[in-house]
Write a structure and sequence with these properties.
heterodimer, A: alpha+beta, Rossmann fold, Alpha-Beta Plaits, 2 domains, four-stranded antiparallel sheet, two-stranded parallel ribbon, 8 strands, 42% helix, 21% strand, B: mainly alpha
Amino acid sequence: MPEYDALIEDASAYEQVAFWGELSGLAPEAARDRAHEVLYFVGLDEARYRPVSGYSTGMRQRVKLAQALVHSPELIFLDEPTNGLDPDGRRRMLDLVLRVHAELGTGVILASHLLGDVERVADQLVILDQGQIKAAGSMAGLRKALARRVELRFLDPLDAAQEAALADLGIVLEARNGLYDLELREADSAGIFRWAESKGTTLIQVTPRHDRLDEVLIRALHPQTGA
Amino acid sequence: MPIYAPTLPPAPDLRHGHPPALVLMRFDLARLWRQKIGRFFGFAFLILLLWKVARIYVDHLLQTNQTFKPMQDFAKTILTQGADFQADLLNPASYLLWFLVALVGGGLVARDTLYRVRPLMYAHPVAPRDYLLAKLGFASALPFAILLPFALLPWLMSLLLAGFNGPVWATAPLRLLPAMAISSALMGALAVGASSMAATPRAGIGWVLGLVLGTAALASMLQGLTGLPAVQALNPVLLAETWPQLFVGVAHPLMGWGPAVLGTAAHLALWTFVAARRTLPSEAVI
């Protein structure tokens, strides 16, 4: 399913899905039956007989998904399937993607810049930058591997010199009532304790913070800079 | 609010389909049907066909009815006879046929370029060779199908009215069908080549008409400069008109066998090459 509108504008959804079915090797009659089934599955009912040129963006995305599913592939590539959709349309499209995987057993590779979409449907993540794989793994595993945000609590309040020395560990995002929200320079929690010992203070709590997916992404793309 | 199906059954067997080229040609035919451009051309070609058939009947009347006996000699002087008459059967307003080929053929590849569906076709089991074969086949089959009744109906009428002594030779289809095939292939190749260079169907029509009229003008200029009639072999309109003349053996064809063979081969090779290059997977998206 390409990102751009690869639709035959002067044909109806039914005609073109049947056409793609035939090109995939279905007999003409089987392709026509299959077009009805797939279009019903993606939620295009009577509109399937109208030329595609009059369709809304959401309908066009559904026709493209139907084209991709017509021959029951084992794996489908969805390039930005929620492009141009309103929040409700996005939710419905992602529901469909989840159904495709859960009910049809089809593997789905979804390419998207909308991290909310990725977070909702993906269980494995590959972060690409200019054709290079920057990070890959399960969503939870990547979060853990790239987790840098921690909350620190000390036994006694830090003095000004100790607070300034926190910059050795990373960027102080927030400081309130003896709690310090930090983004570490390196994902090394043992280093925090060494730092506390060297500065003569007692660290009593290190709480890893839940990183947002965009923070994980930025860290994967730019390991040396903070989110 | 869309209504979704509870689930989707698995697809039927994928090994019972037709060859991709045939599927593509059928889809183009359905597309042509939707465009509804056949009414004008259908009417125009029907009138021309009726005129050809009516001439057979008039000829039969002149030959058999004593009332028209005085008109026979006069008719022979104004109406083409013999081999010229056979060749003329396949000349149903040459420019009208070229215009139809431009109108339909100009959009054949360009429409797929505009809608950006060629990469998807290549993602299915469609090879660039299948795609090219389908487009060339469709663009050539169209003029062939239009010319077919012009070759067969007058022949049938002549056989029914006068048997082997009719104005249309009994062997005429054997000569006219190969000529039609060559002329149609020439038209199809030129139309597909031109269409592959265009980004929209309208531009494709412009390309076909521009190439047909442009090469005709170029051929005329070169003939004027060099004085060689053989350079008219550059002109695809003249080439298409020449082939029936050569096959039926008219006394003074528009050009000889040599220039006709060379000119046709050059056009076929050039436009097929252009279309093949422009429909490669790397050229599939503008």
